[in-house]
Specification:
Keywords: Coiled coil. It holds the Pfam family Zn_ribbon_9. About 75% of the residues lie in helices and about 5% in strands. The mean pLDDT is about 95. It has a 4-stranded mixed β-sheet. The protein has 2 domains: about 80 residues, no CATH class; about 130 residues, Orthogonal Bundle (Helix Hairpins), CATH 1.10.287. The protein contains 5 helices and 4 strands; from the N terminus they run H-H-H-H-E-E-H-E-E. The chain is mainly alpha-helical and about 250 residues long.
C-alpha cells in the first residue's frame, strides 16, 4: 500500500484522536462514582425491604393488640357483670355462689394473662417503632450519599461527553481526507491490536509493541520507498517513519 509521508503522519494524528476517545470511554466506564452508586443503590433497596418487613410486623402486631384489647374488654365486661350480680345479693344458692366466685377468679386470671400479653406486644411495638426510625434514618443517609454520587457522575459524564464530542468532531474532519484503503487497514489493525493501528518508529523502536527492530528489519524499513506503508514485523501495526526513527 502506498501513502505519501505527510499522509502517514496524519494517520498518526488520527491515532492520537482515537486513543484519546478510547481513554475517555474507559474513564466514563470506570468512574469511581459508578461503584458508589451501585453499592448505595443496593443498600437503599435492602433498607427499603427491611422497612417494609418492619412495617408489616408493626401492622400485624397492631392487629394482635386490638384483638387483645377487645378480649380484655370482654373479660372485664363479663367480670363486672358477675361482680354486680354477686354484690346485689340476688344469688342465694351456695352452689351458684361458689360457681360465680370461681368464674370471677378465672376471669381475673384470664385478664391477667391477656394484660401481660398485651404489655409484651406493646413493648415489642415500641422496639419495632424504634427500629423503623433507625432504618428510615439510615435509608435517608444512604440515599443522600447516593444522590451526591449520582450528581457527581452526571457532572463527570457531561465533561467527558463534551471532550469526546470535540475529539469525535476532529476525527470526523480528519478521517475523510485520508485515503480510504489506508483508513480501512488502520481500523482493521486497531480493532485487533488494543486500539492501536498505527505507531511511530522512534529510535529504531516500534511505539506500538515497544520492541526494537532487528538490524535486518531496520535495513528493510530504511530501504522501503518513502511512500511505502510499512508494518512492524512483531505487532503488525502500521509503522510510521519520522525524523526520530534513527534510520
Amino acid at each position: 500500500m502506498k501513502a505519501d509521508p505527510a499522509t502517514q503522519l496524519r494517520l498518526l494524528d488520527l491515532q492520537v484522536l482515537d486513543s484519546s476517545l478510547d481513554r475517555l470511554a474507559a474513564r466514563r466506564r470506570d468512574l469511581p462514582e459508578l461503584a458508589v452508586i451501585a453499592e448505595h443503590a443496593k443498600a437503599v433497596e435492602a433498607l427499603k425491604a427491611d422497612i417494609v418487613r418492619v412495617e408489616t410486623e408493626i401492622s400485624d402486631l397492631s392487629r394482635t393488640q386490638r384483638r387483645l384489647d377487645d378480649e380484655i374488654d370482654l373479660v372485664r365486661s363479663r367480670a363486672d357483670r358477675d361482680r354486680r350480680r354477686l354484690e346485689s345479693g340476688q344469688v342465694g344458692n351456695a352452689r351458684e355462689l361458689e360457681n360465680l366466685q370461681a368464674e370471677l377468679a378465672s376471669l381475673a386470671r384470664r385478664q391477667g394473662v391477656l394484660e401481660d400479653e398485651a404489655l409484651e406486644k406493646m413493648e415489642a411495638a415500641e422496639e419495632l417503632d424504634g427500629r423503623l426510625v433507625t432504618l428510615a434514618a439510615e435509608r435517608d443517609r444512604v440515599q443522600g450519599e447516593l444522590d451526591v454520587a449520582a450528581r457527581a457522575r452526571d457532572e463527570a459524564f457531561g465533561q467527558i461527553d463534551a471532550q469526546a464530542g470535540d475529539q469525535r468532531r476532529e476525527r470526523d474532519k480528519l478521517a475523510p481526507v485520508l485515503p480510504a484503503p489506508l483508513v480501512t487497514l488502520y481500523e482493521k489493525i486497531r480493532a485487533s491490536s488494543n486500539g492501536v493501528g498505527a505507531a511511530k518508529l522512534v529510535r529504531r523502536r516500534c511505539e506500538g509493541c515497544h520492541l526494537e527492530l532487528s538490524g535486518a528489519e531496520l535495513r528493510e524499513v530504511a530501504a522501503a520507498a518513502a511512500d511505502e506503508v510499512v508494518r512492524c514485523e512483531e505487532c503488525r501495526r502500521i509503522l510510521v517513519r519520522t525524523a526520530e526513527s534513527g534510520l
